[in-house]
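Appendix B.2, paired examples.
Example (i):
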Amino acid sequence: MVGRRPPTGRALSAEPADTDGLYGPTSEAWRLNREAALLLGGGPRALLLQIAHPLVAEGVAQHSDLRSDPWGRLAGTLRSYLRIVYGTSTAARAEIRRLNGLHRGVTGAVGDPGAALLSVTYTARDPELALWVHATLIDSTLAAHEAWLGPLPADQRARFYAETLVVGRLFGIPEDVLPRDIDAFDGYVAGMLAPSGPVHPTATARALASAILHPPLAPLAESGAFARRLGAAASPVASLLRTLPSGATDWLYIPAIGLLPGTTRAEYGLPWGAREQAIDAWLVGTWRAWIGVLPPRARWFPQAIAAFDRTGTWPPADR
């Protein structure tokens, strides 16, 4: 049974402080999302699972700049996610309202024949589609942690899922649509990915996946936070990045590909042979070695560091 312990460890009668955000410093959400490497693996996995739903892929293809500006889209998605997890309650709720407002305009006619088998139209405010997007983030957080750091005890998985319910409701997913607990959630994900389920990549999804997994590098130095840090060096660095051969950094996404369910990976046509498995083992093994050496401030997302600083609640072992 889920729910005897409040998700963030607060008393049931206590009003959460704005500085604590939607989850709070004792939550599983703050603990499981803080390691940058985990979310950099789980993030692409979540995006690939989202667009593996044919109707989600239609919305992304028709209303997103993912193909023209993959770095901007990925950075924006990550920024929103971390603001919801680690921001103050005010900031997190404002971000959710902003996203809900954007999603109201994400609607249209289905173009891909594979997606048309499910529906002739789509809308991002469909509770079933909103649930799938929400679920991919939860499932990918768990998958990355369990694959790279080790299995989570059942009670921790249950607490983490219980904590996410408030966010699901804020995104407009009705109570009777949200899986009630972690067991129901696991069953829901399995059913969506089953041969008879709706989540199977279309041609549109495969084209979007190519943009995610093979982004051009030069735009990194031409706009965004990285370009601002480079300053006057941005233009020379962009020119240098253009000289790199196509696919020069594809290997960095191999751990994220490895986290995908095997059937979904095969449906995308992504190879997973001895070479890919060796690179995956090397990258993940290297990160595991460094995690015991680097301090949290060198490993965690800046948003997580800021949240623990803001609340003055650093875990004793990490101070």
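Example (ii):
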Amino acid sequence: MTLNSDPKWLTFEKLVAKVQQELAANASVIHNDHIWGQDSQINRQIDISIREQIGQYNLLIVMDCKDHKTPVDIQEVEAFTMKVKDVRANKGAMVASNGFTEGAVKVAKHCAIDLYRLIDAEAHDWQTYISIPILCDFRSLDKFRFAIPDYLPNKDPYTIVIYDISRHQLGSLAEFLHKQWNIRKLTSQPGESGWFNLTENHEKVQIAGKFNEVNIQANIIVKSRLYFGQLQLIDIKGFEDEVTGSILTKGFTTDWLDVKKAERDWREIASLNAISVTPLLTLTALDVYDILLKLKG
């Protein structure tokens, strides 16, 4: 493997240019460009230029990269502002590995200069460890009831055997209900469902050796358990806005969600009102039942 012989600041610039190209796939992104200064009458070195034609307009955005050990100060923002004006760019942006001073942020905001931090989960000197707030909504069958016709000699939902129209055994009534839940035929909305026809596909029961179509209704109560936590991003490239805190990216990949770990380690909450952070994603998971297990109704 060939080691990168570029100085660290140059590697940072190339990485920023690569991320910017991913964000603006249709634009021309040039690293280490030189643009004629209208006021200075000299070629001005530009760390990264972005050019794109939109209709009859040719847009030019210039970016300045700062890989400093300390936050970028006011003087550097002011100097870059003059460069943006000199090359007649439509927009200017600065990307710093260690952020900006409070004064620099104020000056940049006044001069309409965007300020960013690099966001990249790949392993390098500027690797970013970032996670997103996630709400997991785990739903399960809490209780169930059946309206069993009086003409059935047996009222036990665990021993009443259900058959399809071809007389193939579908399991006990309770097992049939759990099968319907597993294949998402039943509502998963939290709370009580109200009575519904469970045997809507002409299912049958066997009475005295004969198969008879049966109409059995069910009522279920779905329980919701909410867990709030952070899920790490293992792949993301983009920029974090130093002013708003928002992240600009084309997409991201999360780590695997360990359901058991979420239930064990994440914070269980009664409702969204219990947390001050708005989850970026809400994931809903339904329990899957082993039909060999007899659950109490």
